[in-house]
Amino acid sequence: MTYTILVVDDSALNRKLVTTILKAKQFDVLEAEDGEQAFDLAAAHQPDLVLMDVQLPKEDGYSVTRRLRQNPSTQSLKIIALTAHAMAQEEERAREAGCDGYLSKPIDTRTLVPNILALLEGSGDLP
């Protein structure tokens, strides 16, 4: 099965890194550089998973996640928060906003795909 992943990050370099990894593993990838674009793409395309940077221009990732959870057409999307702030309260904040998982930056390129597949295929939660 081919999964579609929406990669949301205001850093073009971060988006390119994640997109390159995912495309090499045969994922379909959509990209957004801000919160508004992320919401619109998620609503229009219904990706299997959203990798959501939490620090975004216009609207932060937590706010976008809450809006996605309130929208009947997107409320069941799988969402993983991405943040450079690897502190316990950040993970708690991500979960409270409605994220299914939390990954800290810099992204571990070796575990990114296995973590995504574990969440998508129901074989486990993210650490």
Structure description:
The protein has 127 residues and is an alpha/beta fold. It has one domain (4-120): Rossmann fold (3-Layer(aba) Sandwich). It has five helices and five strands. It has a five-stranded parallel beta sheet with strand order 2-1-3-4-5, sandwiched between helices. Helix 2 runs parallel beside helix 3.
**CATH topology name:** Rossmann fold
Mean pLDDT: 91
3D shape = globular
Q: Which CATH top level class fits?
A: Alpha Beta
Q: How is the main sheet built?
A: 5 strands, parallel
Strand order of the largest sheet: 2-1-3-4-5
Considering DSSP H and I runs of 4 or more, what fraction of the residues is helical? 40-55%
> Element order, helices and strands?
EHEHEHEHEH
Q: In the CATH hierarchy, what is the architecture at level 2?
A: 3-Layer(aba) Sandwich
Radius of gyration over all CA atoms, rounded? 13 Å
Q: CATH homologous superfamily name?
A: Response regulator
β-sheet strand percentage: 15-25%
Short description:
42% of the residues lie in helices and 20% in strands. With 127 residues, the protein is α/β, with parallel strands linked by helices. It has a single domain (4-120), classed as Rossmann fold (3-Layer(aba) Sandwich).
List keywords for this structure.
alpha/beta, 127 residues, 5 strands, Rossmann fold, single chain, 5-stranded parallel sheet
How are the secondary structure elements laid out?
Layout: E1 4-8, H1 12-24, E2 28-32, H2 35-45, E3 49-53, H3 61-70, E4 78-83, H4 88-97, E5 101-104, H5 112-120
Parallel strand pairs: 1-2, 1-3, 3-4, 4-5
Helix pairs in contact: 2-3
